[in-house]
Design brief:
heterodimer; A: 239 residues; Rossmann fold; 8 helices; 7 strands; B: 187 residues; alpha+beta; four-stranded antiparallel beta sheet; 6 helices; 40% helix; 14% strand; globular
């Protein structure tokens, strides 16, 4: 079992059950074996890892710090993205600390403040991980704009916090936008891991990925069975 | 953010991104949304352990033409060779001999080998009697890798702007974090 990166410096976006499910799935024997075959060492080009919505940064830190165990290759570049500038700062600290602690050669490029993958170059992402705001809510909080005053007030904090869980209709409004962007940003060998909850209707989402986006999809992680239904599901999506 | 990051970024404005995918030679004019152009950049250098094999492995991923533009704008062109060494067959043969660089078992071993190689380079950099042409080549290669290590891995931008060549929008960089949020009318 691989150690989880330290996030003791995080005060607001502490990692929760969903983050740990993604970590367990990505480091499971079946997934690491799949990833190692998929990103075989014979392919010379290093891998670009991108996580939109890093929050605390624990997932990106985990993948960067344990790159050689998970991918069986050390040539990893990692890039974090979050719509909240505070999360970007936290991510940089979490990833840098973990990479140093595990003496990993992975190169952390930095964190960007952006809406999902909006500034990412077409066809560049080899591995994308997304732990979305998946809770069904009556409405979606407004996205911040560059003109918003940076404030640490309670109102601003709770608005930013709501962006990290509120998913709008079926909890899918943000996830759908991310899925729509996958055909553009994924490289030829690109793979995405996306977490869903039961209310997101994972079966329907898988159908959309297959037929609507023309990508392959498989359910590869589960947790928290409630009344016969999996509470959380991790999908692997690839070309 | 590391200098290398701009190699993977484009303008976030939709019309700029779609112009990129329809154009076959995005870099041929200065009006392209890729690469973004640094304005008033404040550079920072963070020391990272020198691992020649790691930097060599990174090179196939670098869009050289775009990196040349970036390095030129920052006055760092002297650290970047005209062409990507990864495209040079002579470099690749040697690379193949070290193909197990990515072996997952060799995290620590890999670092040890890298140090060893590093020592050789130190020795090689002082001319020795009977040093043949090949050693000179290794010396030259070591110097190039050192410079690329400095430019691609150690150099980051802490403050400044990234401007799109097509629409002119400027994305601010503050405390090393690039802000790519757009005003509502551009989303």
């Amino acid at each position: 079992m691989l150690p989880t990166p330290s996030t003791s410096h995080i005060t607001s976006y502490e990692p929760a059950e969903d983050s740990y499910l993604l970590l367990d799935t990505l480091s499971s024997a079946s997934e690491t074996s799949w990833l190692q075959t998929h990103f075989a060492r014979t392919t010379r080009t290093p891998l670009l890892l991108v996580e939109p919505g890093t929050g605390s940064g624990v997932i990106l830190a985990f993948l960067s710090a344990h790159a050689t165990t998970i991918f069986r290759r050390a040539d990893i570049l990692s890039l974090g993205i979050d719509i909240n500038a505070h999360a970007c700062t936290a991510t940089t600290q979490t990833v840098s600390t973990a990479v140093t602690a595990h003496n990993s050669a992975a190169l952390y490029l930095g964190a960007l403040c952006a809406d999902l993958t909006s500034p990412v170059l077409e066809g560049s992402v080899d591995l994308l991980v997304f732990n979305p705001p998946y809770v069904p809510t009556a409405s979606l909080p407004a996205l911040p704009t560059p003109l918003d005053k940076v404030s640490d007030g309670f109102e601003s904090e709770s608005h930013l916090l709501s962006l990290s869980y509120a998913g709008g209709k079926d909890g899918m409004e943000t996830t759908t936008r991310l899925l729509d962007a996958l055909p553009r940003v994924l490289s030829e060998r690109g793979v995405a891991y996306v977490l869903l909850c039961a209310q997101n209707r994972p079966e329907e989402v898988m159908g959309f990925v297959r037929e609507g986006l023309g990508l392959r999809v498989q359910s590869v992680g589960w947790s928290g069975k409630v009344a016969g239904w999996e509470k959380l599901t991790v999908l692997r999506i690839w070309r | 953010m590391k200098l290398l990051t701009v190699n993977f970024l484009t303008c976030a404005v939709k019309s700029c991104k779609s112009s990129l995918s329809s154009s076959s030679e995005p870099l041929s004019d200065e009006l392209s949304p890729f690469p973004l152009h640094f304005r008033n950049a404040v550079l920072e250098r963070t020391e990272i352990n020198y691992n020649p094999r790691f930097i060599q492995n990174i090179l196939p991923r670098v869009n050289w033409e775009a990196m040349r533009i970036t390095a030129k704008e920052l006055g760092l062109l002297g650290l970047l060779p005209d062409n990507n060494p990864a495209d040079d067959p002579a470099w690749n043969t040697e690379n193949d001999a070290e193909a197990d660089v990515n072996n997952g078992d060799a995290g620590v071993e890999g670092a040890a080998v890298a140090e060893e190689q590093d020592e050789h380079m130190e020795i090689d950099s002082t001319p020795q009697k009977g040093a043949d042409v090949k050693e000179e080549d290794i010396d030259k290669k070591g110097k190039v890798l050192r410079q690329l290590h400095t430019l691609l891995l150690e150099t980051s931008v802490s403050e400044g702007n990234l401007a799109c060549g097509k629409c002119g929008f400027e994305y601010p960089i503050k405390e090393g974090v690039g802000n790519f949020l757009l005003p509502a009318h551009l989303v």
